Amino acid sequence: MSDQTKDIEELRNQIKVMEVFQNFLININKKLEIKDLANYLISFLKQSFGVKYCSIIIENERYSLDPINDKKIIETENRVIKEIENNKELILLKNIRNDTLVHYIKNEHDLALISIPVLLENKIISILNIYDELKNINKKSVELLNYFLNKASPAICNSISHNKIKIKSYTDDLTSLYKRDYFFERLMYEITNMNKYISIMMVDIDYFKNYNDKNGHQLGDYLLKEISLLFKSNLRDKDLTCRYGGEEFIIALPETDSASALIIAERLRMNIENHNFKLKENQPEKKVTISIGLVTTITKEIDISEIVKEADKNLYKSKRSGRNKITHSIIINKNLSGDYF
Q1: pLDDT tens for each residue of 86-104
Q2: List of domains in the chain
Q3: CA-CA distance, 67 to 127, in Å (whole number)?
Q4: First vs last Cα of the chain: how many Å apart?
Q5: Backbone φ and ψ of 125, nearest 5°
Q6: How far is CA 283 from CA 127, 227, 241, 279, 325, in A?
Q7: What is the CA radius of gyration of the chain?
Q8: What number of CA atoms fall less than 13 Å from residue 114's CA on the CB side?
Q9: How far is 332 from 329, CA to CA, in rounded Å?
Q10: Which conformational region is residue 48 in: left (phi greater than 0), alpha (psi within -120 to 50 degrees), or beta?
Q11: Which long-range contacts (C-beta less than 8 Å, at least 24 apart) are formed by 184-187?
Q12: Tens digit of pLDDT for each residue in 230-253?
């Protein structure tokens, strides 16, 4: 091949890359939802660069379209991310099975891993993880990947900002739990689409006024936030938690039968009773507790207000019978409910 022919071929390749790049920028800037952006970016990289597997981390969430996402892979990525956070430079592992950085994880895949941080104003906003045969990862492709990713950083930032604004619109400022309107919208969806059952908890902090009056409103806010964190750590990702008002909360447990709901409610009650809250000695019995009204429905043919009313009635029974208790009932159909516990 003559030098002139090589030059023409190289020029064609450059034009092709520029066309791909222009389309990439146009499309990625249309993606406001983080999940949509992440999936587009992964699909683009796999198609344009021919990488075997990849994942991307944005706002501490991992996105991947590949089957290679087992616990060891995620643990490997977490270990690599810690290194990247320290030096803000890409990391290449020649083989994740035996590389010294992650050999203790005992990966079962013979793959190279390259993790590339996406930077904006010297701040890491995302990390891309690419898995492939080492022979397929070369300096030129890595430089091109870096170029594409850093040009995508403003779009990633826009998506992150959009997500934060959206979350703020449907979460309570103090507790970061769902607001009522959004919660009931989600609850309606869960009831309409449930397979067998759903359980609802109404939760009230016992003697909250006493805590607030004796310790001040600032400590009262602390208690609400701390209990909200305990909700998140003791509930499942699929559960919905809402600040219903004041010191009262409502929790939806999708596809959760009565026995399982009681286990979850009891775990929550005990963990809060045993938690070392500030100034808990100022409370009756020197501890912070909650009362719970729990209801399980096995029918979709019921209005949300009726379920909430039943849960609220059970909460009142728990409060009236001494607090720090759970009262549970089951709604069998629109006209029939029975006490369970």
Answers
A1: 989 999 999 999 999 999 9
A2: 3-159 (3.30.450.40), 180-339 (3.30.70.270)
A3: 19
A4: 85
A5: -110, -15
A6: 47, 15, 25, 8, 16
A7: 26
A8: 19
A9: 10
A10: alpha
A11: 184/304, 186/240, 186/252, 187/240, 187/252, 187/304
A12: 999 999 989 999 999 999 999 999
Beta bridge partners of 93: 113
Query: For residues 281, 284, 290 and 294, what is the CA-based torsion angle, rounded to 10 degrees?
Result: 160
Q: Which two tokens stand for residue 177?
A: 């739990």
H or E stretch at 132: strand 123-132
pLDDT at 13: 56
| Kind of pairing between the strands at 290-297 and 326-333 | parallel
Strand runs labelled E in 168-210: 198-205
Give me the phi and psi of 94, to 5 degrees please.
-70, -30
Task: State yes or no: is 75 an active-site residue.
Answer: no
Token pair 């359980």: residue:
199
Asked if 222 contacts 278 with a C-beta cutoff of 8 angstroms, the reply is yes
For the full predicted model, state whether its pTM sits above 0.85: no
Whole-number Cα distances in Å, 174 to 2, 179, 228: 70, 11, 9
Residue 49 Cα distances to 20, 118, 195, 265, angstroms: 11, 17, 42, 49
Query: Could you say which of 85, 247, 273, 310 is catalytic?
Result: 247
Residue 187 token pair: 């609850």
